[in-house]
Write a structure and sequence with these properties.
about 45% strand; single chain; mainly beta; about 80 residues
Length: about 80
């Protein structure tokens, strides 16, 4: 399954806008500089009290449709 690693920095309020349906799509940048869009409902799986912050791996189908999301460990988590 293809993957794309993206950086997401969204405040609690920005996440709330996505959750309430005021924003249906999240726009982010991949680690290799590509512009990436995915469904806002995906954030429900990774949102914390302060929002969504960090590097995440997006799993996509061969035709480019969103399949899943997983938070990647911070560099400080790996030491």
């Amino acid at each position: 399954m293809p993957t794309i690693d993206v950086i997401i920095e969204l405040s609690h309020d920005a996440c709330l806008a996505h959750y309430e349906g005021r924003a249906g799509v999240v726009q982010s940048r991949s680690l290799d500089g590509r512009s990436v869009q995915f469904p806002a409902e995906a954030l429900r799986r990774v949102v914390a009290r302060d929002g969504v912050h960090g590097v995440f791996r997006l799993y996509v189908s061969p035709d480019g449709r969103f399949e899943g999301i997983r938070r990647l460990p911070d560099a400080s988590d790996r030491s």
